[in-house]
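task queued by scheduler; priority normal; single chain, no ligands, no partner chains; default sampling; output format set to structure tokens
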Amino acid sequence: MKVAVFQGLRQLEVIDAPEPVMSRPDDVLLQIDRVGVCGSDIHYYLNGRIGDQVLQYPATLGHECSGTVLAVGPDVRNVAPGDRVAIDPAITCGTCDQCRLGRFHTCRHVRFMGSPGQAPGAAAERVVVPARCCFAVPANVTLDQAALVEPLSVGLHAVRVAQLGNNAKIAILGAGPIGLSVLLCAKAQGNYSITVADLREERLKFAQLCGANGTVIVKHEGREVHEDKYEFVFECTGDPTCIDQGQRLLKCGGTLVIVGIPGVDQAIFDPHFMRRHELTFKSVRRQNQCVEPLIEMLAQGKINADPLITHRYSLENIAQAFETVAGYREGVVKAMIEVSEVYA
């Protein structure tokens, strides 16, 4: 079986690995069909870590994925062989205090696909996951769209965390896959006026395709985006300086929602500005129970995420995909790895 692994910083190769084995009655054996390259994957590719999550080489990778069910354990009832599925990469314990509260995304014992020391990554021909991580998709949802469910679910969770008011004015900093996911989910949830800002003009064209009411090309520390204008700002770049910039765009009483993952351990912002304007900061941890609603939204045509996929690569060319995404080359937004040759 072919599996992609990190062998060092900026070193990615495809190797032969043993077939995964079903060992639990609720296990599902999957053929992986699609894997999206995520910004967190790029953190590991370039830096070998995210915060205290440090890779030990060789390390598997990938978590934005869709696949086809090959076999199921005797206790599995929600999917059957032949089903096409979106996959929730978070394998939760179901018993800790967080899971009992319904906060599965902050499970104390979560095993996340492709995270150091946790669960094997999805950039492989086949994987085994618990049945609770598998969600069958209807015939009108493609494998590409099913793989996009994971980043889109982060966008939906961010919108839910924000608790947007009626007719809210919103700014989204960053028109990458997560910023565009927030945009798509917010537009599907209500009639909001949304401005998207980014350093790259080509990405703002995708924001327009996804329904942005306005776009701003940023050249000088965010000053092109008007201050004291928005009730909600979603920080989706991962640039730590954008936290302070983002709060300055808010009206008094506004909310900054931090979605992007910084590449550093500390970020600096002006606490006096925050205090004087009585701002609220909220952070987003992956997603929680948003996979099924997202599949339904895709099936009903409430979200069209197809424009996000700009580049396609085979598993054998995954290193080229990572170099393209890491370097923001060729106007890339989402690079999709076609692990199988199934195109349903």
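post-processing summary
- The first helix runs from residue 39 to 47.
- Residues 199 and 220 are 9 Å apart (CA to CA).
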